[in-house]
Amino acid sequence: MGKTKSSKRGQPRAVLDLERYVPALLVFLANKLTSGASAIFRRHFGIGTTEWRIMAMLAVEPWIAAGRVCKVIGFDKAAVSRTLVTLQDKGLVRARSHHSDGRSLVYALSDKGWRLHGRILEISLERERRLLGDLSVAEQEALINLLNRLHRRIPAMNAPIDIPPER
Length: 167
Prior knowledge:
By secondary structure, the protein is mostly helical. It is built from 7 helices and 4 strands, in the order E-E-H-H-H-H-E-E-H-H-H. A hairpin with a 5-residue loop joins strand 1 and strand 2 (12-16).
């Protein structure tokens, strides 16, 4: 959503209303959640939120390819590949050749990775509980429903837009 603001010359200019512009609200919230989680995870567990997100994905879907992680989480392949190497180096993830082609790799948590996953999962669920603490169960369900609906709209949002020529 937008609003107007006067320039130094008193002419109105269109600006975003950052308290109502949904993409900004989502990004600001995500940035603050990520920053807080990253500080905790790095201090106590030696990993960041990127590593945690990939570990969480591998817990839900073991023995998947990097491309699947990218599709679900929304990270680019280079970042996922680098992170998977880091997780392997730390002994948190195992890799093996994909059974169908033998060339690509699939990944799963190691025993050490599962132990760390369990510890971080407890912290993550507590953080979620704190975040949602002011919402009723019905409001939480409504929020989850709305977020899933917005997620399904991402392809439409990211579709090409006709950009008018500069005036």
